Amino acid sequence: MEQQAQVIRIVSDATARVAVKRKSACSGDCHTCHGCPHPDEIVMVDADNPVGAQKGDAVIVRSDTGRVLKLAAMLYLMPLVLFFLGYFLVPGGSGFRMGAGGAAFAVGIAICVFVSRNMKKNDREMHFSIVRVLDE
User: Fold this and answer.
1) Beta carbons within 8 Å of 101's beta carbon, 6+ residues apart
2) How far, in whole angstroms, is CA 111 from its chain's centroid?
3) In whole angstroms, what is the distance from residue 80 CA to residue 104 CA?
4) H/E/C letters for each residue in the chain?
5) Helix 65-89 × helix 94-121 angle, to 10°
6) Which of 15, 21, 68, 129 has a CA between 20 and 30 Å from the CA of residue 85?
7) Please, which residues bridge with residue 46 across strands?
């Protein structure tokens, strides 16, 4: 995934802090939807700077799209899948099955939190890289 960003400061010889406008999954028609709580949210990230961008430069930043999709699938789908597995695979009345589904959903959320914290601890979060400086 490539996005336009602006270099805020140079962190080191190989790293720059950039401000990236967070993209939403919608089409960007905010005037018709009003569904996004913060459509213009700006995120500060550190990015590899192999092109030598300087403070104030407008740049193109690339992130690993496949990793984003895997994390989104895990976050949104795993707890839901576990809920349905818990609901349909546990014998008993509907109240007991809903309780089992809710417990399985909670386990899915706990797994997501554990994986997220583990990624932060092991410095395996999203990786960004500046691929080019835009002409002024």
Assistant:
1) 83, 84, 86, 87, 90
2) 16
3) 9
4) CEEEEEEEEECCCCEEEEEEECCCCCCCCHHHHCCCCCCCCEEEEEEECCCCCCCCCEEEEEECHHHHHHHHHHHHHHHHHHHHHHHHHCCCCHHHHHHHHHHHHHHHHHHHHHHHHHHHHCCCCCCEEEEEECCC
5) 150
6) 68
7) 17
pTM for the full model? 0.56
Which token pair is 91? 């014998």
Structure tokens at 101: 């589904």
C-alpha to C-alpha distance for 86 and 103, rounded to whole angstroms: 8
Is 58:8 a contact under the CB 8 Å cutoff? no
Residue type present at position 90: V
Q: What's at 92, amino acid-wise? A: G
